[in-house]
Amino acid sequence: MSVGEAQAFSLRGQGGKQNLYEKTFVVLLLVAVLIGVASLITLLIDVLRVGAPRLSVDFLTSLPSRFAARAGAQPALWGTLWVISVCTLFSVPVGMGAAIYLEEFARKGRLATLIELNIANLAAVPSIIYGLLGLAVFVRFFAMGRSVLAGGLTLGLLVLPVIVLSGREALRAVPSSIRDGALALGATRWQTVSRQVFPAALPGFLTGIILALSRAIGETAPLITMGALTYVTFVPNSLLDRFTVLPIQIFNWTSRPQSAFAETAAAGIVVLLAVLLAMNAVAILIRSRYQRKP
Amino acid sequence: MSKVMKRSSEITLDIKPVPTGGTPDDRPESEPIFRVRDLGVRYGGLLAVRGVTADISRNQITAIIGPSGCGKSTLIRCFNRLNDLIPAASIEGQVLYHGVDLYGPAVDPVEVRRHIGMVFQKPNPFPKSIYENIAFGLRVNGMTDDIDARVEHALQGAALWDEVKGKLKSNALSLSGGQQQRLCIARALAVEPDVILMDEPASALDPVATSRIEDLMESLKEDYTILIVTHNMQQAARVSDMTAFLTVEVSDDGHRTGVLVEFAPTTELFTNPRDPRTEAYITGRFG
Fold it and tell me: ipTM of the predicted structure?
């Protein structure tokens, strides 16, 4: 039990270089996290600070105005809610259906690969192109006019690839042993998919839907392209009414020369973020319910 | 129950004449439930298994043993048409089930699987409650009368009831591996099948759980016909009445095909193998 023996067997760290590498990496990773979080927090604080004086119930219930102090976001807020509802009602069922068909029923072959490649490409097409598509197909061909319906469907098409791709990922993540288990009990393919595979994939589907709708709610370019209004003094009452949405209204306010409109724009951004967060909260709530549910 | 009976009679409607040899069966107490005739499976044109001919008897445990990659799992999946799900797989030869060709044109694979249940290598309970795991099979089979009693009966049949009766609503994934596997057996029993296929049902389990499953198989034999794939020769020797030994033949271009070497009563196969390859395998000189 001499000192020499104790030194021959030691569990002390190697120290030096290895440790330094280790620490450097952790610090770099932390910096990467902080860049994201810090910019988000900065944005939020800045917007809240600038927009705070204008945030009130009045702001949500008044129409836009030439005077910054009186301008409200009511038509844009309702326009956004209408358009996002149409977009959701269109893109979620269609996207889920397409994902389920491609992943669970379609024969894997050259055609399936081609379709897959196409959908992946569609997800990368610039949104303004979808605006042109919406203009040609919905506004003109189907004669919907520059309506809530046309806008919602245009955004629906825009986010459809995101929902399909993430839905397929979610379905692929369901172990095939679940499918085998259900089929071996005498379930049909439809029963297997609808009662076992789809519920297991639903949390993944919802993640994709959150991403898709978050993108849709912030889109400006395709709606301007297809002819959404930029200055609206009424709230849409039907699917065929004309409309504007929050991002367009915000863009309109920020492009005004009067500095007072900067405050109004900031308040608009806060409203937009609030709608977005509320939407995501609902989706996350549903998702966590399904994940916990036995 | 009546539903099951009705289905059985539906299947017997298109019975085809089965060639029966003039010699009386040497095990007269058990008529063959499956007659397998020169069965082969191809994956994308290449033979994975070939030349399987065997009569499988009712209320017996038939073990399929052999080295890894000899196509044991591929073979057992022919009995409930689970290979249908693999687009590249094709079947040749015949599997007659109560005289009906399982791969005949009028046969619906879904209907086949309602008669022939399966338990898999890895326990695969649905990510739902214990109760729902069993109720699912009942619902898809239209056995919705008195689900509670059927669930209890199935769990008792799989020797799991006493362990889970207080927590039927909790998630099946919270059970231990051995319990999960018995739940999968209960799930298969609940739909009142005729045959239960087991693909290495104990390979993912510890020895205690394994011996519980083996005891369970012994008691299930009373009511069911069991086919079990196992890579564990001791297990085959312990539980089975008949044993089929498969081995791998490697062709010149390196392709591996499983072939049936010997099919005999278990005691005979283990004590007095007729084929030198069987002897080499069971004495541990190969595989």
Answer: 0.83
